Amino acid sequence: MLVYCGVTAQPATFAITDKQPAQVDGLELGYTIKSTEVKAVSGKGDFSRYSVSFYVRNTTNQGKIMLYKQGWNILNNVSDQLAQFNCLNATGARLTSKEAIINAEACNVLAIVDNNCDPKKNKQDKQFAQIGYWIKPGQTISTSAILITPLNTLPNMQVTYLASQLTPLSSASIGGPQLVPVAGDQYNQPPPPQPVADGEVFVKLKNNFNNMYLNNEQGPPQATNIDAGWWSAQWQLIDIPNSHYVSIKNRWKGGSLLVDQRGYVTFTDNYNDRASYWTMETTNDQNVFRFRNMMTGGYLCIAANGVLIQSKTPVNNFCSGWLMEQP
User: What is this structure's pTM?
Assistant: First the structure.
């Protein structure tokens, strides 16, 4: 295992393998190969095709944060990028990648600030404000990509560490208004678990391609890592009467998934909207299903960044396959 300590002026780059990640300031930078196959490229012969998951893992018990610069800073010039992975021998063929970037999450705190709307009153309000980007203690942030390399050659990988401004949360110096220590996305955490009503059954939906879970923790539907107990990642599959369709209803906020007029996957509270009706199609894998929209005929799947999209390609076993798990 490669170990690197300290911070350098220029981004540090390391050669890594799927068995030898890099260790930088308490972060593990690595990747795993999920599947391998031989891919024929028209007119060019056979190549090796790899489905790869890249990750950055905080191995410490402290959150690490990149703070916005203090003072006048219109664009908040702090990058959220943690690491960039580059495959030196990837061909970059169509619909495949040569690189991947891991981004940190937004860090929000509850700030007590002056309310200057009424100059006659000395009033302070609590407001949530983003102060930078962070990775939580023990958290793993990942993304997936498809790599094509010359036949029978493993990916030749390098990773560049981009988060030299990361600071342990316990020693971060934050100026400005008084901050109440409610960091990260705790402001929209689900309510405490309560007994499930009779007849209600909830499931988690895990994408078959990148092993991320369908949730709406940050608002829009997406597939990401989740914490245990998130109601935002629990779903109720409700049968539509006198049909073979289901509605995919979120346990936390109650909305159902639909495809809107722009073709985007979003939410609706109108349970009579036919754009929120889906058929469940079985796959060759146990408990893995595809969801096909009634109105568009598109399948619920994910883009490379985890955003939900619809695809008209039913043979896409990875991006459009969803494993049903118990919460």
Answer: 0.51
